[in-house]
Amino acid sequence: MTEPKRLDRGVIRTFHPRPESEADDVARAVAGDTAAFERLYQQHVPRILALSRRMAGPHLAEELTQDVFVRVWQKLNLFRGESSLATWIHRLAVNVIVERFRALGTQRDRFLADGDDALSRMPETVGRERGWDTAMDLDAAVALLPAGARSVFVLHDVEGYRHEEIGTLLGVSVGTSKSQLHRARMSLRGHLTRERQAAHD
User: What angle do CA 37, 66, 94 make, to 5 degrees?
Assistant: First the structure.
């Protein structure tokens, strides 16, 4: 709380307390301080919303983001500072999103197999069938990928996970993860190339 302090010649100046550090906010939030948790939320929500949108699509992104931060609130007392808070929240978010896939009955072996077929057709057909405009960006192209391939691509190329980690998260082999990533990259490259060419025609 700020307090005014009277100086010489009757001048009154307001002194502001030093801003709380993230560690202070974590400790306060664990103790039940909702204002401290709100500060943590505002700091980290943009990245988690982007992750949710890329992995699950825009229709689930906001709901999943809220689910993530409910989980953060519930588990923040388990954060030990062995990694950064951003990394801890990010990994928790990935787990929440994968859990949602499972709850929706999207089994890894089934949607990854379906993804192979869809990915092989995507560069030639998807853009025309969906009527996308020539300003398509990478996020929009990623959204066209089947769920399994999209998850592998986002986790590996966007978020920096290793194939071994992806395999554990998604319940697939390292070979499947590598194969899905390769096909996703090829399909995205082909699709984005076609969009750029169309924009110059």
Answer: 100
41: amino acid identity, one letter:
Y
In the 8-state DSSP scheme, what is residue 20?
A: P
Q: Which amino acid is at 33?
A: D
Q: Tokens at residue 113, please?
A: 């197999």
Question: In whole angstroms, what is the distance from residue 160 CA to residue 163 CA?
Answer: 9
- Three-state secondary structure call for residue 19: coil
pLDDT band at 158 (very low <50, low <70, confident <90, very high): confident
The answer to whether residues 72 and 92 touch, using CB atoms and an 8 Å cutoff, is: yes
Nearest by Cα to 28 from 82, 72, 77: 77
Tens of pLDDT, residues 85-95: 999 999 999 99
67 phi and psi angles, rounded to 5 deg: -60, -40
Q: Could you give the CA distance from residue 118 to residue 134 in angstroms, rounded to a whole number?
A: 22
For 176-186, the pLDDT digits (tens) are: 889 889 888 88
User: What is the average pLDDT score of the chain?
Assistant: 77
SS3 17: coil
